[in-house]
Amino acid sequence: MKTELKESRLVAGNEIHGVVLKKLDEHEDYRGSFTEIFNHRWNLDLDAVQWSLVKSKANVYRGMHFHKRHDEYFCLIQGECELGLKDMRSDSPTYLEWSKYELHGEDLAALIFPRGLLHGWYFHVDSVHAQSVSESYVDYGKDDNWGVVWNDPDIGVPWSFDDPIVSHRAQDFPDLDSFKKAIAPF
């Protein structure tokens, strides 16, 4: 009996200006498969300068992070995750809108989003993702490495979990109101 393929897709909230969910084509044969996960000809608004491979255990949450200077690319390779976004760009037509995506390693897709969005991801199972940013990790400064506590109800994202494993740093992230006062205006 064949199981139903889980689809990577927007599952709640609204589309946010500048966010692209790019479905990827997996080409399979008797040896395995080949998938192009990035091509400069896709005309994405991303100037990738660093690529990283990230492994996360089940029940890990990474975020909610925020950067003024760099755009991001996220591609789940194995596992499954929820990815939440909130638009904090005051000049954006989707200012303060939020969205929630489900990504599944069995339905390869990349989520590309611009600077100025709160973003975080939760892994239901042990997972692997590729991530790219338009600023090298070693160049991140405290002036552009912000965060908001993941479960602030004012973010709006309806997460399906309630007790994730977060980093020590994320445990001390402020609420959304305090964050908005700290970065205003953006």
Question: Which key features would you list for this structure?
Answer:
13 strands; globular; five-stranded antiparallel beta sheet; six-stranded antiparallel beta sheet; 186 residues; mainly beta
Largest sheet: 6 strands, antiparallel
Number of strands: 13
Secondary structure category: mainly beta
Elements, N to C (H/E): EEEEEEEEEEEEEHH
Low-confidence stretches: none
Biggest sheet strand line-up: 1-9-8-11-6-13
Helical percentage: under 10%
Distance between the termini: 52 Å
Strand content range: 35-45%
* Radius of gyration over C-alpha positions, nearest whole angstrom: 16 Å
Can you characterise this structure?
Strands 1-9-8-11-6-13 form a 6-stranded antiparallel sheet, with no helix packed on it. Strands 2-10-7-12-5 form a 5-stranded antiparallel sheet, with no helix packed on it. It has 2 helices and 13 strands. A hairpin with a 2-residue loop joins strand 3 and strand 4 (32-35). The chain is mostly beta strands and 186 residues long.
How would the blueprint of this fold be written?
Layout: E1 9-13, E2 20-23, E3 26-29, E4 32-35, E5 50-56, E6 60-66, E7 72-78, E8 80-87, E9 98-104, E10 109-113, E11 117-123, E12 127-133, E13 146-147, H1 168-171, H2 176-183
Antiparallel strand pairs: 1-9, 2-10, 3-4, 5-12, 6-11, 6-13, 7-10, 7-12, 8-9, 8-11
Gist?
Helices cover 6% and strands 40% of the residues. The protein has 186 residues and is mainly beta.
